[in-house]
Input
Amino acid sequence: MLRDITLGQYYPADSVIHKLDPRVKLFGTMLYIISLFCFRGIVALLAATVFLFAVIRLSKVPFRFMVKGLRTIMILMLITAVFNLFLTPGEELVSFWKLKITAEGLKNAIVMAVRLTYLILGTSVMTLTTTPNQLTDGLEKALAPLSKIGVPVHAIAMMMSIALRFIPILIEETDKIMKAQMARGADFETGNLIAKVKNMIPLLVPLFVSAFRRADDLAMAMEARCYHGGSGRTKMKPLRYQKRDGLAYLTVTAYLGVVLVCRWFLPWPM
Amino acid sequence: MSIILDKVNYIYSPDTAYQIQALRDINLEIKDGQFIGIIGHTGSGKSTLIQHLNGLMRATSGAIYFHGLDIYDEDFELRELRNRVGLVFQYPEHQLFETTIFDDVCFGPQNQGLTKEEAGLRAFEALRSVGLPEELYYQSPFDLSGGQKRRVAIAGVLAMKPEVLILDEPTAGLDPAGRDEILDLIARMHRERGMTVILVSHSMEDVAKYVDRIVVMNQGQVLYDGVPREVFRHYRELEKIGLAAPQVTYLMHELAAAGLKVDAEATTVEEARACLMEALTGVSSARRDIHRE
Output
C-alpha cells in the first residue's frame, strides 16, 4: 500500500556518476541549473542536451526512472507553456477570438518547457545516483565553513539524516497501524471531510506515540554510545576528492563556459 | 466451509529495483475449527500470507475463496470478510489509541455497526476472557504493562467475534509467564468457541504444544504442511532453513539413537514423559526377567 512511496528515489547501480563525491554532484547540479537559466540559442541548447544525455547514459539508470519525475510537474509545465504562448506581446502569428499567438510567445513557451524538463531530469540524476545519506554528508562537508560563524552545520546534517532515515520507518509504521485498524473495521476511504478527519484519529494517535517512543529510544542509544555532537568527531567514510571528481568539476565548468560563450557572443537564434 | 488459497503470488514493489517476490504459488486449505501454526524464518512470507487471508493485501495473481466465494470478486464485501476473519498483528499494543481501555475494545464492534450497548457487552465479555482486572477497564491503555496492553489489543479483536482468529507472533517480546498466558488464552478460545485459529510463530515449542497442523514457510513457499510429528520428522531439513524442532524432539531422537526404545517423534514434553516412562519401566521389567533366569 504505502510501501511504494519512495523518497530519495535512489537507484542502485555501479557507475561513474554513482561513485562521484556527493559534493561534486551537489555543486555540479547547481552549476547545471545556472546554465539552464542563462542559455540562449540553439548551440547552447545542443550543448545542454548533449551534456545531460551523456550524464544520464553514464549513470546507467534506466531512462524511464528519470521520466517518472516529469509526471509530477506536467501540469505546472502546461500552465507555464500556455501562459507564455498567449500572453507574450509581440509579432502576431495566429489569432482567434481574443487570443493571439506571437512568435515571441511560441519561443518563450518552448524555451520554458525545455528548461523545466531539463531541470527535472538533471536533478533526478543527482537524487537517483546519490543516497540521501551521502547527500547530507556532502552537504555537511560543503557547508562546514559556515560553522565558523556559528551555524550548527553538524547538528543540521545529523537532524537531516535522522529525519531521512526515519521516513521509511514511519511510512512502514503508518502502513502497519492502518492495516491493524482496518482489520478492526476502520474505514479510511469513505465519508465526508469531517468524517475522514475523525477516522484518522485511530491512525494518528498510535503513530505519534510510536514516533515519540522511537525518538526516545534513538536518543538513548546515541547517548549510550557517547554521542555528544559534532566537535572532534571523525567519520567512518570521510569524503575525499578523487581524480575523477576533479575531472567532473572540469567537465561541468567547461560545459557552463560553452553555454555562457553562446549567450554572450553568438547572435540569436544561433 | 473453509478458506482456500489457489496459486497465490505476491510481489512487493514490482518493476522497481527493489522487487521482491514474497509469495510463490501458495496452495492451502484452511478448514473450519483447525488450530494451525505457521512457522518460518524472518522474511519467509508468513506475515504477507496472513494479510491475504482477510483481504488486507491483494494477491498479484491467484485466487482466495472464503466459504466458496472469491474474495476478489467485485460484489464481495471485504469489510464483511474482516469482520469474520480477525487479525491480530505483531506487537498489537501499538494500535491502541482510545482514552480508556473499554472504549478501545469497543472500536471493532462499533465499526461492525453494533449499537453502543451491544458493543459494550462485547467489550466486557472480551476483556473478561483475556483476564484483565475489572478495575482497569476505564483507565488509559497507555498506563498498562506490556503484557496487559497486548491482552487488551487481543480483546479488541476478540470483541468482534470472528470465526477465524489469526495471530502474528502474539508472544514476541513477552516473558515466559506472559507467553503462557496468551497461548493458553488462545487455546481456550479455540476449545470453547470452536474458533479456527492460525498462529504465526517461530517458536517451535509454542507451536508443537498447541496446534494440530503446522505449515512451514520458506522463501515464500510452503515447504511442509502436516501434523506436528510429521513436520518435525524433517528436523534436519528444518535446521537448514534456520528453524529447529522442539528441543524435546532432539532429546528423543538422541535417546532412540542411543538404543532406548522410545518414540523419537514426541513433540511435547508431556508426550515425551509418557513414552519415556513406558520405555524405562519396559527396560527395567526386561532386566527383571534376565535376573530371574
